[in-house]
Queue: 2 jobs
Job 1
Amino acid sequence: MFKSVGDTMTLSLSKLSTLGVVIRRCRNWLPVALSRMGIAQMTRTVQLRNGLVLHSRGLHADYYWGNVFEAAVADVYGIEASEADVIVDVGANVGAFACLAAWTHPRAKVLAFEPQDEYATLLETNLEANALNNVRIVRSPVTADGREVSFHFQGGGGSSGLYDLGADRRVTMKSIALNTDDLAGESLFMKLDCEGAEGEIVRWVAEHSRDLPAKVRIVCEWHPWCPMRPPEAIALLNQCGFQAALSERYREPYLTAWR
C-alpha cells in the first residue's frame, strides 16, 4: 500500500523532530544518529549532555532504540522536572529511565524491576558506568498480587511480558507485588512500561492509595492489549483523588496521573 503525501510528510517531520531531540540532548549525537539510521554501526553508547552515559544492545533496531530514546534521550516520562524521593521503574529494561532518575535525583531511592537477565545485567553495567549507587534492581515481573506467572520473552527485546504476543519462549516464574513500606517517603514517582500489566498495577495503586505518599505521580505507556482500557483506569484513579489524562508521545499513548 502506498503512503499518501501527507503520511510521508508527517513521517519526515517526525524524524526531523527526533533528530532535533538527539542533537539537543546527546553529546555524541552524530554517531548516535548514524547508528540509528543504519548508515554505520558506529556506537551502542549514548552520551547525554548532562554527563550520563548509557550502553545499549544496539541503536538501529526500533526496540533497542526506543528503550533508550523515549526513556532517557527524550525523557517522555518527565522525571528530570519532577519531584521525587522514591522512584519506581517497572519494566526497567537496560535502565535508561532508572539511570536518568538516579542521576537527576541523587538523594532519591530508585527501585528498578526487570525480569530479563540480559537487560538487568546491562542495567547493572550502566549503573557502574555512571557510579550510581541509589538504585536497587529486582529481577522479577511486577503484578498486583505476586502470583506465579508465565512470562513471555521476545528474543529481539520488544514486548516481553505477561502476555503472549508471539514470544520466542516462556518461563514460569514468581512475580512480585509492590510493597507500600518500600514506597514510603514524601513524594513518589512511578514509571510503568510493563507491556500490558500496567492495568493491574494501576488497580493496585487505587487499592493502596491511602498508604502511599501524599504526593504521587504515575506515568505509563498504555499498551493496546492491556485488559483495562484507559477510560476505566482514569475513572478508577479519579475516585482515589488523582487527576489523570491520556496523551500521545512519539505515536504512543501515555497515561499520566498525579495528586
Job 2
Amino acid sequence: MTATVALPMFPLGTVLFPTMVLPLHVFEPRYRALIDDCTADGADGEFGVVLIERGSEVGGGDVRTRVGTVARILQVERFDDGRLALAAVGTRRIRIERWLADDPYPRAEVTDWDDVGAAGVGLEEADPLFRRALALAAELGEAPAPLDVELAEDPALATFQIGALAPLGPVDRQALLATEGADERVALLVEQLTDVVELLRARLGG
C-alpha cells in the first residue's frame, strides 16, 4: 500500500508532467515561505503542483484538481525585493487524498500514483499526429516546440512529453495526467491530437 505523506502544494494555472521542467517566478509571500521551507537544511526540495480548475493563482479561494505532480527544485535565484526565480522538474504523479489548512501555504496529504499497464504502450499513431500538429501550429506562428524535437526512448515518458509540448490546453493536459496509465494516455492523445489537427487545418483554411 502506498504511503500517504503531507506535502507543500503549489496550485498553478498550468499542468506539470513528470520529467518536464517548470520555471516559476515567485512573489506571493506564502509561496516564498514554501520555497524557503523546501530549500532549508535537511529539506528534500520537493513540493506538489496541481492545476487550478477555477479561480486565481494569487490570493487563494481557488478550486484545485485531485491529481498532480511532485516537483523537485533544481535552482533558485533570490532577488533583493524578496522575489524568487526557480527551476524545478516534475518527478512523479500524485493523488490528492486530503487538503490541509492553507496556513502558512497550501498543503495536502498525497500518495504516489504509478502508471498502470504501461508495458504495451505504442506511439505509432500519436507521434505523427503530434508532428503534424506542430507543423500546422508553426504555419500559424504558434509552434510550442521545434518540429524535430526528440522524444524519450521510454514510450511512457514520451507520452508525457507529447502532452507537454503539443498545442493542447490545460484541461486536455490535466485529462492526460489523470489517466490510469500510458496505454490509456496514448489512446487519449490520439483523440486529442486528431481534434487539434482538424482545428488547426480549419484555421489555416479560413
